[in-house]
Write a structure and sequence with these properties.
150 residues, 23% helix, Thiol Ester Dehydrase, Chain A, HotDog_dom_sf
């Protein structure tokens, strides 16, 4: 699986002195972009392609508090992908001291910035998607490209 160590920073905290709920989604988004950058798709490439990820649904489950300056192991796996690559479901698990603190599951797609709709990724990006380590409960998702759209 893909994993990076991050830190629960000052801007991640809430009034109760633990990590705010949206900070978990921010860490999940950060690791996704780190993964794509590490695999040949930095932000500049997405800009050049006029293609970007669009999240359609986030689900966050909490198991343990994270506090200021805690080291967090953030993992990323693929729990779903459509055959055409237009839709994906990415699961991020966030660990503190080796114990699961939170799980973020995001359903997303690839947004064509010119056409303003979901689109199939180019072949090189599809290869990267297929290379993401998969969860045990991985499933094939319905696609979004219809005849005449491709």
């Amino acid at each position: 699986m893909y994993e990076r160590t991050m830190v629960a920073g000052w801007g991640d905290m809430d009034f109760n002195a633990h990590m705010r709920n949206t900070a978990y989604m921010d860490k999940a988004a950060d690791i996704r972009f780190m993964f794509f950058a590490d695999h040949g798709f930095p932000m500049a490439e997405f800009s050049r392609l006029r293609l970007g990820p669009v999240v359609m649904k986030d689900e966050v489950e909490y198991f343990r508090e994270c506090r200021l300056l805690d080291a967090l192991a953030v993992r990323m796996e693929l729990s779903g992908l459509s055959e055409d690559g237009t839709r994906m479901r990415i699961r991020n698990e966030i660990y503190r001291e080796g114990v699961l603190a939170a799980r973020v599951t995001s359903t997303a797609g690839w947004f064509d910035l010119a056409a303003r709709k979901l689109a199939a990724p180019p072949p090189a990006l599809m290869e990267v998607l297929r290379a993401i380590p998969r969860t045990e409960d991985f499933e094939v998702l319905p696609g979004s490209v219809r005849a005449g759209d491709a």
